[in-house]
Design goal:
single chain, mainly alpha, Nucleotidyltransferase, domain 5, 3-stranded antiparallel β-sheet, two-stranded antiparallel ribbon, 5 strands, Trp_repressor/repl_initiator
């Protein structure tokens, strides 16, 4: 590893030059003594003699040096001010240029620049450099004919996918690949029209046993013969609240109702308990383990009246 070359100090140069001026030794002897090159020592001697007068006029030299430093500082400050101004102006201009549309920015790029290269131009206006060299290929006659054929098939049979459209083109005498048909359909924005699956918003609880509809062909001729209950939501500005109610099928009267901020089984159970306390009779039909407990606690319910009915608890998705 090479050693770093040492730079002689001013004191060392002065010592060597004074020995040369004294003349006790030759130049070569002095150079051999200090391991120097004669040409270097001669240059040091010239500089020393040229500036020897400064030793007798130190004040003027210092004053001139200070004045020169002040002048340089003023020039540097002025350059910094101009540089800051130009930088702010360039940032403002670059921000405005970046907000321009694609075609306008593309027109600003100079293909044969004199000072700023194309790469730097693209960076300044936030433009992709590859777009400067890309030239779009014109749509050929064969492609236009194929696009018209695809559009015609889609217009006649909008439920055909790209596979069936490809089959129709092959039968029509066109030589085209499957992927090419798919790409052309995407280019034209053609999407298959087909019936979608019905969205199910009500899911039965997996623990609930499914019973037959016992109220089918049943004639409701008196109050308190058949009750039904349901839960729904009410949209508010700050969210939703949930309403549960029990209705009598004969009189269409609301026997009990409650509103809650959460949709859970306790809401429906409390509504059922309230209806039983107000209008409870001997005969009851109910379903599910959530309703069985309050019904069994009702004093007027009997074991032989325990029959399943069409009432069931469901969980609903709230949109």
């Amino acid at each position: 590893m090479s050693q770093k070359r040492k730079k002689p100090s001013a004191e060392f140069k002065t010592k060597v030059v004074l020995e040369v001026i004294e003349g006790d030794q030759t130049l070569n002897q002095i150079c051999s003594k200090y391991e120097l090159v004669p040409k270097t020592v001669q240059n040091w001697k010239k500089v020393f003699l040229a500036n020897a007068s400064l030793a007798f006029n130190i004040d003027n030299a210092v004053a001139e040096f200070k004045d020169e430093i002040k002048t340089k500082e003023k020039e540097v400050n002025e350059l910094h001010r101009q540089l800051g101004k130009r930088t702010a102006e360039l940032e403002w201009a670059a921000k405005k240029l970046k907000s321009l549309d694609y075609e306008t920015r593309k027109c600003l790029i100079e293909s044969e620049p004199k000072n700023i290269p194309v790469t730097r131009q693209c960076e300044l206006i936030n433009f992709n450099r590859s777009n400067c060299y890309y030239k779009s290929v014109r749509c050929t006659k064969d492609k236009m004919e194929l696009l018209r054929a695809i559009d015609r098939i889609y217009t006649e049979t909008p439920f055909y996918g790209y596979r069936k459209v490809h089959q129709q083109l092959i039968e029509g005498g066109y030589s085209v690949g499957l992927n090419r048909v798919r790409n052309y359909m995407n280019e034209l924005g053609l999407k298959v029209i087909y019936p979608t699956k019905k969205v199910c918003t009500t899911l039965a609880h997996p623990e609930h046993k499914k019973y037959p509809y016992l109220l089918r062909d049943l004639e409701v001729y008196k109050p308190n013969q058949v009750w039904s209950t349901d839960i729904t939501y009410i949209r508010l500005d700050g969210g939703f609240v949930y309403l549960a109610a029990v209705i009598d099928w004969h009189s269409k009267a609301i026997l009990s109702h409650k509103i809650s901020t959460t949709m859970d089984s306790s809401l429906v159970i409390n509504v059922l308990k309230q209806a039983l306390e107000r209008y409870g009779t001997r005969k009851r039909r109910y379903l599910g383990r959530y309703f069985a407990h309050p019904m069994m606690q009702n004093r007027r319910a009997k074991r032989d009246d325990y029959k399943p009915s069409a009432v069931r608890v469901t969980q609903r998705y709230v949109p």
